[in-house]
Structures are given as C-alpha cells and as structure tokens.
C-alpha cells in the first residue's frame, strides 16, 4: 500500500461519508430548526452583513426584503436540493441588485455569512451530542457549499451579461450609422478602432444599408487616432461587403499616419475610394447619387 492510499484511508476514517438514508433523516430536522428560528437567525445575519459593511448601496428596506427572500430560498433549497430552482432565483436576484450597485464580492460575502450563521445555530442545538452534530454538519455543509457556489456563479454570469450589454450599447453609440438623405449613410468613427469594434462596425453598416436601401456610404475616420494591419484589412472587407449589398463606400478623414500605415502594410488601395475630408466626401456621395452640388456662393460645382 503506497503513501497516497494510506492517506486516503486515514481521511475516510476521520471523515466518514454520510449515506443517503442518514442525510434524508437529518436534513428535514435541520430545515425545521432553521424555519422555527427564522426571525432570530435572519436578524442575526442582517446584523453580520451590516457589521461587514456589505450591501451599503441598498436602503434598509431593500436589504430587509432581499435578505428575507434569500433566507427563505436558501432553506428551501436545503430541503429540496433543487439546483435548477436556485439558479433561477439567483438570476432573478442578480437582475434586481446589480442595477443598485451591488458587487460580486458582496454577494459571495453575504451567502458565506448566512452559511456561517446557520452552522453556528446548528452547533448550538446539537453540541451536547458530538456524534450527531458531526452527522448534521456532514449533511449541511455540502448542501450549503453547493448553494454558495451556485449563487456566486449565477451572479457572475448575470453581471457579465449586463457588462456585455452595456458595452454593446456604448459601441452602438460610438459608431452610429446615420441616414443623411435618401440612399445616403454616414458612419463617423471616433476613438480607438480595434478588431472587435471593426467587426461590429461592419455588422451595423450592412444592417443600415439594408434598412435604408443605401447606395452610398461615407465612412469618416477623422476621429480615429490610428489603425493596425488587421483593422485596415477589415476596412477593405467592409468596403467589399458593402459593394455586395449594392452600396459604394467613400472613406474620408485619413490622417497622414493612417495613410502611411495603409501604404506600408500593402492594403489594396484600388478598392478604397478616399476623399480628404467629410465635406468633400459628402459632395462626392451626392454626385454619385445624381444630386447637384451647390457651393455657398450659389454656383454649381463642377
């Protein structure tokens, strides 16, 4: 017998596995205890939360309502073992409290505090029978740990979803597809243009071309400080995709640095119709659409 096997046997002797029948007998007892002392335990838990300075973004009324709800669901999951119901509740909880500014560490913290408060209560009830106490804790701790893990994961997933949604909204605002006149769109790009944003830009532009039945698109990159090779090639792909949708693309606002980058990396410039500034791009777009371009002095353009 090797050393690892000996260690495993020793751990098994020190922490015997709780069989299913024992668990089925003990869980209803501890659930009944937690429900009987619900008010006192919830108040003790709320006091611990305040002492740890958690959930400070919530009003006392909101915190009382949420802690009561969390407590009742916690005990219900201990009784039923339904992870699916817990996941659904955790998502609902996250949707309510994330907009109030509650952070991930706070959610994990309050669930761990509840686990501790309930464990201490069970210890107080069964401390005179050490053997029974061990069996009760063996039934309680795996279920409590599973609840804490499920709530934490669900909260993180919901928070990531909210962050992605906010990022998408910001990107949509920062790269709006604007109809200037019939069949003419303008897409002003402001800020850093990375690969992910360039991909989203293409999606928005192609959608705008279809929605507005555009024939000409002016992409103005005056506000873009720089582009790398991947983004430059993506711009060429955007031009090609727009042509397949039936729209010509005019790119305006090329800085000397970006122009030099395009030449250096060998972008196929024959596919790109570039005009110095936005005003010139709009004039060229109107010519392509058959409109007469008039200057400010009232004379027609060439």
Automatic annotation (TrEMBL):
CDD domains tied to this protein: STAS_RsbR_RsbS_like (cd07041)
SUPFAM superfamilies: SpoIIaa-like
Family matches, as Pfam families: STAS
PANTHER family per record: RSBT ANTAGONIST PROTEIN RSBS-RELATED
Coiled coil segments of this chain: none
Tree of life domain: Bacteria
Domain STAS: 174-285
Name of the protein in question: RsbT co-antagonist protein RsbR
Gene3D superfamilies found in the cross-reference section: STAS domain
